[in-house]
Amino acid sequence: MADRKIHYEAAFEDYLRSKGWPYVMVDEGKKAIFADVSLKSFDFVVYSESGPNLLVDVKGRKFPDLRATGKRRGGRAWENWITREDVDGLRQWQGIFDGGFVAALVFTYWLQGRPQDAPFESVHVFRGRHYAFMAITLADYVVLSKPRSARWQTISVAARAFADKAVDLSALL
Question: How far apart (Å, rounded) are the C-alpha atoms in residues 58 and 42?
């Protein structure tokens, strides 16, 4: 089961339920080992009626109040860093699941300001908080990414490029 103590994942699960999309939560407590290699777990398998099924890794981030920070500066708007381990694990899982499954990142943004001031078409309310779910396939993310921190082995996509490429989760399903 997904760790429901992590509000980003709990909000994502609630969103999936509210849309009626079939999914399976991955039990993060059980690490998978294939050929003596431990793989980093992803969070959900989300099934699609019209396209490939998704192997989803949920990434929780705060989205700043653009009124307070100024739309030009935006603070940490569109923050989307991930680790190289995330990339490696998702690639391996996509290979294991083979055709019909695509690895995707879903950035679950917890809106810090009023929803109407944020640049999202769809906002989901969960436990009194507002969230937006922006999805991007792993392949698209990797093509756009650049190193962020060598020390922490992280990569990210420039905010503008990410905002242009990421889509509401429903567009991938």
Answer: 8
Q: Which two structure tokens, joined as six digits, stand for 11?
A: 């909000």
For the segment 18-62, what is each residue's pLDDT rounded down to a tens digit?
999 999 999 766 656 555 667 888 999 999 988 899 999 999 999
- Under DSSP, is residue 39 helix (H, G, I), strand (E, B) or coil? strand
Q: Is 55 a member of any domain?
A: yes
Spatial neighbors of 138 by CB under 8 A, at least 6 apart, are: 87, 90, 91, 94, 102, 103, 104, 105
* Phi, psi dihedral angles at 102 (to 5 degrees): -125, 135
- Number of structural domains the chain divides into: 1
Name the residue with tokens 């019909």: 100
Domain membership of residue 99 as a residue range: 7-172
Q: What is the 3-state secondary structure (H, E, C) of 10-37?
A: HHHHHHHHHHCCCEEECCCCCCEEECCE
